Amino acid sequence: GWHIECSAMALRLLGEPPIDIHAGGVDLIFPHHENEIAQSEGATGATFARFWVHVEHLLLDKGDKMSKSEGNILTVSDVLERGQRASALRYVLLSTHYRKQLRFTWDSLAQAEEALTRIMDCLVRLDGVTATGSNPAMEARAAAAREAFAAMMRSDLNTPGALGVVFELVRDVHAAIDAGEVGAADAAALRAAFDYFDRVLGVIALRRAEEEVPPIPVDEIEKLMAERQAARARRDFAAADSIRDDLQARGIALEDGATGTRWKRL
Predict the structure, then answer these.
(1) Are 104 and 59 in contact (CB under 8 A)?
(2) With contact defined as beta carbons under 8 Å apart, do 207 and 243 qualify?
(3) 107: part of which helix (H) or strand (E)?
C-alpha cells in the first residue's frame, strides 16, 4: 500500500511522467523507490523520473537519527519557538551537502547567526559606498564569483562549496572597501552578485525580512538612540553606554560609524 500511494499521488498531481526530480531519504532507495519505479513504469510505459536526489539523515545533538518511529522529531516550529531565526536554520541546512549526514546542534545555529551577520555587514558596507567611478577589477571579481557559485551548484548541488564562494567574496569586498578600491558602479555589480547567490540560497532576503520586525518597536529604538546621542553630546558616556547595553540585552546592537549610528538585530 505504501509504495502504490506514492506512485498514485505523483502521477495524479504531477501529470504524465517523467518527473524531472524525485527526492527522498537514503533509507527509501530500496525497497520503496525501486517499487515506485517498477509500478509506475509498468503502468505508464514511460520513464518515471529523470533524476533521483537521495538525502542523508538529519542527526540530533547526540548522533541519534531523527525519525517519527523514534518519537524524537524536532520541527521547524520547535526551533523558532526557542527564539531562533528561520534564516539561521536554513543556513545550517545549506552548510552540509545533501548526501552527507547533518548533525543538528544549537551551537550550529549560533555559528549560522555569526555567518549571516558577516554577509549582512558586507552588504551594509556596499550600501555605504559613495565614491564615484568604477574599478574594472571589482566588476570582474563579481562576475567571477557568480560563475564560481554556479559551478558549485552544477556540481551535484554543492551548497557548502557555494557558501564558500560567498564568503570569499565577502572577504575580498571588505579588503577592497578598506583600500578605497570600490566605486558606486562596482558596489552595484557586487550587490547584484549577492542577489544572484540568494536566488538559490534564500537566506539574505529572509534575514532582511526578519530584521524588519525587531524585538523592540522601531520608534522605541530610535527614541533610545536619540537619547544616547544626546548623552554623548554632553559627554555623559556612562549614560550612553547604559542605553547601548540595555538595547543589546534586548536583542538590538548599535554600530557607530563615520556616517552615524545604525542598529541591527542580534
Answers:
(1) yes
(2) no
(3) helix 106-127
Contacts of 66 (CB under 8 A, 6+ apart): 57, 58, 59, 60, 72, 73, 74, 104
For the segment 103-127, what is each residue's pLDDT rounded down to a tens digit? 999 999 999 999 999 999 999 999 9
Number of domains the chain is built from: 3
Per-residue pLDDT tens over the stretch 27-45: 999 999 999 999 999 999 9
Statement to judge: residues 92 and 32 lie in one domain:
no
The answer as to whether 60 is a domain residue is: no
C-alpha cell belonging to residue 89: 536554520
Domain limits for position 50: 3-55
- Within-domain flag for 62: no
Q: Which amino acid is at 116?
A: L
**Helices and strands of the chain, counted as H and E runs:** 11, 6
How many Å separate Cα 131 from the centre of its chain?
Answer: 30
Strand, coil or helix: 201: helix
